[in-house]
Give the backbone structure.
Amino acid sequence: MTDFLSLADVLAKHYRRLDPNHPAYGACGGCGFDPDVTPGTTTFAQHQAAMWREACTITTVEELDALPSGVEVRSVNGPWLKNDRFYPDEPWWPAGGEISEASSEVGLPARLTHHPDWPQP
């Protein structure tokens, strides 16, 4: 997970491949999703948003451990910042907390909200 996908990576993979015979329609070039023929689906933009949420979802402690220092996640028990500079065995700091915690204390699933490699505005 050290090569975490950026939003641009996910959107590049899940682009709308247009049908030259029907320019208003088209399936996802990455997975074949087609909002026009897939029952129970919504818009293509919502499909891309779902793929981004999936890419940012952390489900295991091993995935948390693989993240670099400086990431921020939002878990079921609040926001966390990873900083392993002082306590490598307890690199996770809860928002407003004064004591770092082990990865096992971060409630899962968690959503990655900041990655130091993502471009900044």
